[in-house]
Write a structure and sequence with these properties.
By secondary structure, the chain is mainly α. It has 3 domains: 31-42 and 182-300 and 326-367, no CATH class; 50-179, no CATH class; 375-430, no CATH class. Helix content is 56%, strand content 0%. The longest helix has 33 residues, at 269-301.
Length: 433
């Protein structure tokens, strides 16, 4: 099945005339799609750099010698840098020292709190700083209880998290919490994601501006908000000039053009809405010309739109198309459409509307298929590492590709192709061709 699909795609690519190709160019300037999850992580790292709390690439950086723990002299007793520094060392201790971990588990049980192993932040792991602080804040009472009575390492008492530190950590948590929902939302594999890109960018910028005002622009947290805002705005200015994100948003029947009425309510909002309308109209015209080119190519090749029926009693004449679609009416009608309910299935909606909006349906099919993040492809690489093991290191490229596809399509469950008892023989894989 996979070979047949690849062969068909190759033949269509070789035979397709230049004027019938997709109406966009995939150059770095015009067609490059930045992974928005990576962009969000860059904004977070920029904020951490301002806070002077960038996560270390190696966890051993947080290691402390027994009975030698001490807060560096350069840190203040109640500031953001020292609070995060102490937090990271506490997490390392509870992760690496067995007695501390057992004591924390017992305190969690005594206080009726579910134990969750603390995690350290990593510069390349999305939302890792938020997850680190959130887990520690959830375990605040058990952690304070362990630190108050422990006698495993008396020097650690110098790193005790004070009430002021907990207040600072909760403020930092407010800052990084606004990045969590967008990064998770845009990692979806079972639903379109590019339609969320512009709304999520604009909401991030709005929330960062509100937080900067809340903390104060001259405070350390206010400056961190400014750094994250500038980095996010830089990439937003790139994506808003490219058509694919704007078009994908308008092709979402739950958003339509109406979402920009909600997002741009400020004084200069009309200029933004005019630009967006122009971008979508340009794409619509490109697809209109492409559709006319397809019709001309079919007519030139002498291929009838409906096959001749030798049956004289056939009703095929009733279904022969006459005339062309009024493309201007289609565009105007779509721009006046009211948004659908939030739980509307986008794919099913366009399956039912492709005859009412034939050109816009093709636009939606192309643009809604663009992923907003590289999460799906990175998952494929991870799965590939599970398939090619030391016991299965002779798999060829074609068989590996087949196994990856079968895993992604749900034919093979996770773990089935890794088991020695259920290992799939290469002869069996060849029989799938």
């Amino acid at each position: 099945m996979l070979d047949l699909f690849e062969e068909t795609a190759r033949e269509q690519h070789d035979e397709k005339p230049d004027n019938l190709q997709q109406p966009w160019s995939f150059t770095q300037k015009e067609g490059d799609v930045h992974c928005i999850g990576h962009v969000i992580n860059l904004a977070v790292q920029e904020a951490l750099k301002t806070l002077k709390a960038e996560p270390a690439e190696e966890t051993e950086t947080y290691q402390m010698i027994y009975n030698s723990a001490a807060l560096p002299i350069k840190f203040g007793k109640k500031d953001v840098v020292s609070a995060l520094w102490k937090l990271q060392r506490h997490v390392y201790i509870f992760r690496r020292r067995r007695a501390w971990r057992i004591a924390l588990e017992k305190q969690c049980q005594a206080h009726g709190i579910k134990y969750r192993k603390p995690t350290l932040d990593m510069p390349i792991r999305w939302n890792s700083t938020y997850n680190m602080i959130k887990k520690v804040c959830d375990l605040r009472v058990p952690i304070q209880a362990v630190c108050a009575v422990q006698d495993y390492d008396i020097s650690v008492k110098a790193l005790e998290l004070t009430l002021g530190d907990w207040v600072i950590l909760n403020d930092i948590l407010k800052l990084f919490a606004i990045f969590v929902r967008p990064s998770k939302k845009l990692q979806g594999e079972k639903y379109p994601t590019m339609n969320y890109a512009i709304p999520q960018y604009l909401q991030l910028l709005h929330k960062l501006e509100l937080l900067r005002t809340h903390f104060g622009p001259n405070t350390i947290l206010g400056k961190a908000c400014t750094s994250a805002y500038d980095k996010t705005e830089k990439y937003y200015n790139m994506i808003k000039t490219q058509n694919f994100a704007i078009v994908a948003t308008i092709c979402d029947p739950r958003f339509n053009f109406n979402v920009f009425q909600n997002l741009y309510q400020e004084a200069n909002g009309n200029a933004h809405k005019t630009r967006i309308r122009k971008q979508f109209q340009d794409v619509f015209v490109q697809y209109e010309q492409r559709e006319l080119g397809l019709q001309a190519a079919v007519a030139e090749a002498g291929i009838p739109l409906i096959a001749n029926d030798s049956d004289h009693d056939s009703e095929s004449d009733l279904f022969k198309p006459r005339g062309t679609t009024d493309v201007e009416t289609e565009y105007a009608k779509w721009m006046r459409q009211q948004p659908m309910k939030r739980d509307t299935d986008i794919l099913r909606y366009w399956a039912s509307k492709e005859y009412e909006f034939p050109i816009i349906a093709r636009i939606a099919r192309d643009h809604l298929a663009i992923p907003a993040t590289s999460a799906a492809s990175e998952c494929v690489f991870s799965v590939g590492g599970d398939i090619i093991t030391k016991k299965r290191n002779r798999l060829g490229a074609s068989n590996t590709r087949r196994l990856l596809c079968l895993r992604d399509w749900g034919v093979l469950e996770e773990g089935v192709d890794d088991s020695s008892d259920n290992e799939i023989d290469s002869d069996e894989v060849d029989s799938w061709e």
